[in-house]
Automatic annotation (TrEMBL):
It comes from Streptomyces kunmingensis. Residues 121-140 are annotated as: Disordered. It comes from the Bacteria. Residues 1-324 form the Acetyl xylan esterase domain. This is Acetylxylan esterase.
């Protein structure tokens, strides 16, 4: 697939206007306040991952509406000291899978929490374990269109709230340096990590790759691939629902979360990505931190001949080096 979005020189200047609701901050403040709990963890049980150099725990924490959300907690075996942490968010339709699947962050010396996606896990990977008991509002079968006609019913209100609660859960686990916790994700996970950066003011860092939910209106005009195609298919049947859908999606727009973020951020994007068009990532990158009165450290890496896979392992290597520098300087 040849490049289909803006050319790189235009992306480097791409800072579109936002259709941001006036009550965006009030909406999220009320949502997160309702999810606050003095004990974020429900339980953490040792899990047999079949490995010798990494230890894992099966974690359950309180998410949206106090619902139990599952996660895998992993760390280098026998590490005696407090470790910086990484909360990772999985891609669209994927669950947490099995505890031995995602080992990069633990092997790099971090305390790693991989959050399950509520109501997902059936499209690829090795499954999930967290139902979504609130998914009864009108909408299509895919997560992105569940509750699409009302921001209070939308699936991503619940998933993003879970993600904020996951940061609190990791900080409550033993052996974690709560002052050095980063959020990371790719695709849907990248969009969720960006939302967490905008909602958790003391986050240490954000690693955002090929983010979903960024530049949503433009993405709907550009592509029918992936989750955006599910929105288009829903609106093709429910003619006249566009205004309600666009209003709901404005409350989960990644560029709006980016405006409120303070943590250093590392972005990655493939310029031939038809699933999450690169203009969305650049829109969030250029607006990152603009409402904070600060200029957070940030960088973006573009891969001109790659699609949704972006820089793949090359980009992960860049992430590892960057995050090490960020968290080591935070420890001084």
């Amino acid at each position: 697939m040849p490049a289909f979005d803006l050319p790189l020189d235009a992306l480097r200047r791409h800072r579109p206007e936002l259709d941001e609701p006036a009550d965006f901050d009030a909406f999220w403040a009320a949502t997160l306040h309702a999810a606050e709990h003095p004990e974020p963890l429900i339980r953490a049980r040792p899990a047999d991952n079949g490995l010798r150099l990494v230890e894992s725990w099966d974690v359950t924490f309180r998410g949206f509406a106090g619902d139990p959300v599952h996660a895998w907690y992993s760390r280098p075996a026998g590490a005696p000291q407090l470790l910086p942490g990484v909360v990772e968010f999985a891609g669209y339709g994927r669950g947490r899978g099995l505890p031995h699947e995602r080992l990069t962050w633990a092997n790099a010396g971090y305390a790693h929490l991989l959050m399950d996606n509520r109501g997902q896990g059936d499209q690829y990977g090795n499954g999930g374990a967290t139902p979504d008991p609130h998914a009864q509002a009108p909408g299509g079968p895919g997560p992105i269109v569940r509750g699409l006609l009302d921001p209070y019913d939308h699936h991503y209100r619940r998933l993003i709230t879970d993600a904020v609660c996951a940061v609190a859960a990791l900080r409550a686990l033993p052996g974690v340096d709560r002052d050095r916790v980063a959020a990371a994700g790719n695709s849907q996970g990248g969009g969720v990590a960006l939302a967490v950066a905008g909602l958790v003011p003391d986050l240490a860092a954000a690693l955002v790759t090929a983010p979903l939910l960024c530049g949503i209106r433009r993405a709907l005009d550009l592509t029918d691939a992936g989750p955006y195609g599910e929105i288009a298919a829903y609106l093709a049947v429910h003619r006249g629902a566009e205004s309600a859908a666009y209003r709901t999606l404005s409350y989960v727009e990644g560029a709006s979360f980016a405006r409120r973020a303070q943590a250093p951020a590392h972005f990655g994007v493939g310029l031939r990505d038809t699933v999450c068009p690169p203009s969305g990532a650049f829109a969030a990158y250029h607006r990152y931190g603009e409402l904070t009165g600060q200029d957070p450290e940030r960088e973006i890496h573009a891969y001109p001949f790659n699609g949704h896979e972006g820089g793949d392992a090359v980009h992960v290597r860049r992430q590892l080096a960057w995050l090490r520098g960020i968290l080591e300087s935070a420890a001084v």
